[in-house]
Amino acid sequence: MGFLEKIGLKKKEKVEKGVEKSRSGIMNKIGKAIAGKKTVDAGVLDDLEEILITSDVGVKTTVEIIDRIEARVARDKYLNSSELQGILREEIIALLKDHAPDKPADFDAEFPQKPHIVMIVGVNGVGKTTTIGKLAHLYKTSGKNVMLGAADTFRAAAVDQLKIWSERADVPIIQQGQNADPAAVAYDTVESAKAKQADIALVDTAGRLHNKKSLMEELAKIKRVMGKVVEGAPHEVLLVLDASTGQNAMQQARAFTDFVDITGLVLTKLDGTAKGGIVIGVSNELDVPVKYIGVGEEIEDLQVFDRELFVNSMFKE
């Protein structure tokens, strides 16, 4: 039994509970749209299109999903409305497959290179620091040697918050306090991780977007100095988004991808929102895989994203 199974991260009931608000809203609407209908006709598809758009899947992604279903209807000649939910699940999973590896990530998998450097980005308030703390705990629990870097030196208390998480996860933290040079902190973190033979270093960064130019320059500098210490660093750049903000999260994602090469997404606070459709839309529109989802407050409630488990839970009858 692997690490994920041991701590229950992939248990079906955990994800289903986490997306309960999103599922109840979208499935109630779909149920009403197909009530009394014997076939999947243009009217049903129009209703489905509206439901997906208003569920924060997004216009572009919704159109792609509807096109896929229309192709199925044309190919199979006849589909009844009771089959629609199954087809919807299949086509969304197929759509997400284009943006994710076949096998979900695993915390106890070996890294190609050590130390493995991960830069975490995202605006303030999305749960960035909490996500880093939970990742540190999960990697530590899986047997990894973990280190944190407090390079968000702009926001008051950001360093203190990350220090609390480092204590909870029982992992070392590299810090220089508020207003220190973020790139210097990142450099020290990677250098220390290399010297102490850490498996992974998670580096926090500032989340302000009010001045995109300065943020772009700062993030570019952080990436550059880390790459001087460890070849290819950062090996991952994770963007943390608050799922409860729906399309606002999409706008934030676009803003960051304008000047950062995002390799993976983290969608937090899914358990507190009915806007779970954003998980599907943001991955498809940005062509970036969702790597983790947050489905609760507990430290183990940061889930490795499994597209089939997520979609089947979201669109469960």
TrEMBL record:
GTP binds at residues 122-129, 204-208, 268-271. The keyword Phosphoprotein does not apply. InterPro entries: AAA+_ATPase, P-loop_NTPase, Signal_recog_particl_SRP54_hlx, SR_rcpt_FtsY, SRP/SRP_N, SRP54_GTPase_dom, SRP54_N_sf. It is found in: Cell membrane; Cytoplasm. SMART domains: AAA, SRP54, SRP54_N. Residues 289-302 form the SRP54-type proteins GTP-binding domain. It comes from the Bacteria. SUPFAM superfamilies: Domain of the SRP/SRP receptor G-proteins (SSF47364), P-loop containing nucleoside triphosphate hydrolases (SSF52540). PROSITE patterns: SRP54. The keyword Phosphoprotein does not apply. It catalyses: GTP + H2O = GDP + phosphate + H(+). Keywords: Cell membrane, Cytoplasm, GTP-binding, Hydrolase, Membrane, Nucleotide-binding, Receptor. Its EC number is 3.6.5.4. It is a peripheral membrane protein. Its main location: membrane. Part of the signal recognition particle protein translocation system, which is composed of SRP and FtsY. Belongs to the GTP-binding SRP family. FtsY subfamily. Involved in targeting and insertion of nascent membrane proteins into the cytoplasmic membrane. Acts as a receptor for the complex formed by the signal recognition particle (SRP) and the ribosome-nascent chain (RNC). This is Signal recognition particle receptor FtsY. It comes from Fodinibius salsisoli.
